[in-house]
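#onboarding

Welcome to the new folks! Below is a worked example of what a typical request in this channel looks like: someone posts a single protein sequence, and someone else replies with the predicted structure as tokens. Don't worry about understanding the tokens yet, we'll cover that in week two.

Example request:
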Amino acid sequence: MTRPLSEYNLADWRRLRPLTHGIKTLRYRAVDRVYRRQPARAGDPAALARATGGRQLLTTIAFADPEAIDWQGRLVGHYLPRALHLVADNSPDDTSAAAIAAVARNRGLAYVRLPRNPWRDASRSHGIALNWVWHNIVRPGRPQAFGFLDDDLFPTGPDDPFAPLASQDFYGVVREWGPRWFLWAGYCSFRFDRVADKALDFGQDWFKGLDTGGGNWRVLYRHVDRSRIREAGSLYVPFKDGIAVRDGPLQWCGSWLHEIGAMGRSDLQAEKRGVVAALLAPHLAAAARGRLGTEAEPDRQPQQ
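Example response:
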């Protein structure tokens, strides 16, 4: 969405930015409307919608990482057993999609493969995938509550993102840009009855500086006093000593560990995945034994 005209300066007007931003906005909305009418490439959205009724629904947007989906599926099932966990597969290639579908089948996770995504940009691709799930599964299914997860976000304790919804309409990690703010699309939850009638848009509102999930600023967040809601904690740390956070970041969202696989030095990605595997190992072992955290080591989350 375009910014208010009062926020465009003289240089913006000379470059016709209000006009070009308006045209691009119309294009993005048109692409979104066409995409969300496309059928799934695998799975039955109507059946999934029926299965969500009155439940807590957690949807992961998967992208070509079956190992992460396997870890996350095991840990979500262990620490949040009441939630229906849906994998909405946004993988661009058939090989990754087949591997993720096999993980979902083996772990008893709900699965749908999304239509072929029209965007190459990661943020736009993620946002339009979220909107497809909202329009084709969440909204018709009418769950009690729903949430979205990045595929490399892993619970390491019974830290329930739905619990805060007892006293507020939504919950998650807040990101901000100037006076505006929004819930990060990789960890957010919502009471369905409080947002069902709103024209939610989980895409970007890039002309206002808001990344994926920021499209809800206009219809949702700007109407809420941020000081009156509980937010999830967020802490960035380097995955090992001796490097800058930007070279190999991990993020702790409460007791949820976010690998942030696309960020940092490419030559450190394999090593970082190994560190994440080591951090998750005791929790995965406890999940395999079916004991809720009793045999997992304490989280190695840095003290804030």
